[in-house]
Prior knowledge:
Elements: H1 5-48, H2 61-69
Amino acid sequence: MVSSLHEAIALIQEKDLQIQKLTKQLRSRDLSLRTLQNQVEQLLRRVYGRRSEKMHPDQLMFGSLLMETAGQPATIEPLAEVPPSTAPRKPKASKHNHPGRLPIPEHLKRVEIVLDIPEEEKCCPQTGKPLKEIGCEVSQKLEYRPSP
């Protein structure tokens, strides 16, 4: 217990200083937590993100510069230097020279199947004008029929 008023005031001032110290520590920890969360998000984006969103390792050095210019202490440490790969890259195959499928030989029998709608549906129900053909699709396929 406190025996005098002066001891009580000194104890209150000591507690206030301790509260200020703990508040300062809490703010510092919050700041470091936010920067660590930001680093984790950036690393996840770098590893799992789309190719256009991936970051070059040299870009990480700008984070500390931005923190210094904002007047905050630079707490972000650069990641370890990624050595450049010494293996030569294979050039990507050109997609323009793809031959596609071989055409079906001319000597094979062809059957034309036309899928059409009835004549009464070829007119617009509101205006009565004939509808235009939008397009058609042509495909060929080989059918396997075992010999009898």
